[in-house]
Amino acid sequence: MYQPAITGHGVFTPSQSISNDELVVAFNAYADRWNATHSEAIDAGTVDAMAHSSSEFIFNASGIERRYVMDKAGVLDPDRMYPQLPGREDGVPGIMAEMGLDAANKALGMAGLAGTDIDLVICAASNHERAYPAIAIEIQNLLGADGFAFDMNVACSSATFGIQAAADMVRSGSVRRALVICPEICSGHLEWRDRDCHFIFGDVATAVVIQRDEEANGPHFTIQSTSCATKFSNNIRNNHGFLRKAHDQMDDRRDMQFMQNGRKVFKEVLPMVSAHILSHMSDTGWDAGDLRRLWLHQANKTMNDFIGKKVLGRVPEAGEQPNILQDYANTSSAGSIIAFSQNSDDLQVGDRGVICSFGAGYSVGSVLVERA
After folding, report:
1. CA–CA separation, 141 vs 154, rounded Å?
2. 156 tagged catalytic
3. Contact 205, 102 (CB under 8 A)
4. Cβ–Cβ < 8 Å for 32, 195
5. How far apart are CA 182 and CA 187, in angstroms?
6. Pairing mode of beta strands 221-230, 4-12
7. What torsion do the CA atoms of 308, 310, 316, 320 make, to the nearest 10 degrees?
8. Which of 138, 167, 181, 328 is least surrounded, with the fewest CB atoms within 10 Å of its CB?
C-alpha cells in the first residue's frame, strides 16, 4: 500500500466577472419588462409582481460580492439572461476540456510533472457539456496521458468524491499519478431570472494532482483519510437531461434549471455536514485541536460559519476557515479546492486540515490532509 498525496493544484479563472451591482441592473431591467408584460394580471391580483433585487440583499443572503463567468454579455442582457456559449465543431476541444486543461497544467507545473506522467484523469463536475465521449478522456488526450479517464458527477461534492476515488487507486497501486479536474460552468444551469437564486453561481475550473507521497518533488499534503456519504433529497434539483426531448419537455420550464428549497437545505445539510466531519475526524483519531485549516464548500458564508463553529467548538479565528465565495460565488465542486489552493501555502510540516464539499444528493465528502 502506498501513501497518496496532493502534490499540485491549479485554478483556471475566467477573464470576465460580474459585480453584484451589474447583476442587479440587468435583473431589475428584466423584472420591469416582465411586470409590464403581465401588468393586467398583476393589477387583477392573479399574478404577483416580480420584485427588484439589490446588492445589499445579495450580500446579506450569501456573502457574495462578484462572480467570474465564461460569458458576461449574455447573462447581463435583459432579453436573454443566460450565457452565450456557441457549440464547437467536433474536432475542436470542448469548453470544459479547455478550462480543465488550463487548471491541470498549472497543477502539473506545481507538482513538477508533465501530462505524459499521468495515468488517471477524473473529470468531476456538477454538469457535463455532453453525455459522451467523456470530458475526462478528451482532457487525457489533450494532455498526452496514457492510462484511463472517466467523468464523475456528485454535484457540489464531486471534487472530494473524485479525490477519494483517485487516492484509493494510488494507495492500492492500481495507478501511480492522477488528476482530479473540476471544470464548472455553473452559469449555464443557473436561472438568472429568479430573484432568490440569480446571484448564486460562477464559473471556474480546478485541478489537483494525486500521487505517491514518496515520489513528491516538493512540499505537499498527504491524504490521511477520506470519507463520503449520500442521502437522497429533492431539495436541490435540476431536471435538465438527455431525456428532455423524449419526455416532450422542450419548453422553457423553470425546473430545467437549478432549483433549491433553501430553508430545508440549511436545516438538513448543516447538521449532516458537521456530524460527518466530526465523525470522520474521530474515526481517524483527530480532534478539533489538531486542525489548522478548514477548506469548506463555498456556497454560503452563513453555512460555512455554522459548520466551522460546530467542528472547532468555537468561532473560527481569522484564516482558519477561509472563504473565497465573495469573489467567486458558488462554483459547485470547485469551491473547496479554490479555498485550498489559495490558502494552504502558509501551513507548516505537520499542520492538518480538512477539505470538505457538500450539496445536492444530498452528498458530503471530506478529505483529511497533513502538510509534508
Report:
1. 24
2. yes
3. yes
4. no
5. 15
6. antiparallel
7. -40
8. 138
Buried b vs exposed e over 165-200: b needs ≥16 C-beta within 10 Å? bbbebbbeeebbbbbbbbbbbbbbbbbbbbbebbbb
pLDDT in tens, 51-92: 999 999 999 999 999 999 999 999 999 999 999 999 899 999
**Nine cell digits for residue 258:** 437549478
Alpha-carbon distance of 5 to 305, in angstroms, equals 28
Query: Residues 156, 197, 228, 356: which is the catalytic one?
Result: 156
Helix boundaries (H) for the chain: 20-37, 39-44, 55-62, 72-75, 95-111, 135-143, 158-172, 262-284, 301-312, 325-328, 335-342
Cα 40 off chain centre by: 42
DSSP code string of 164-218: HHHHHHHHHTS-SEEEEEEEEEGGGTS-TT-TTTTTSB-EEEEEEEEEEGGG--S
Instruction: Give me 49's grid cell.
Output: 409582481
Rounded to an integer, what distance in angstroms lies between the CA atom of residue 75 and that of residue 200? 13
pLDDT tens-digit series, residues 289-329: 999 999 999 988 999 999 999 999 999 998 999 999 999 99
Q: Are strands 236-237 and 177-185 parallel, antiparallel or unpaired?
A: unpaired
- Per the CB < 8 A criterion, the answer to whether 326 and 64 are in contact is yes
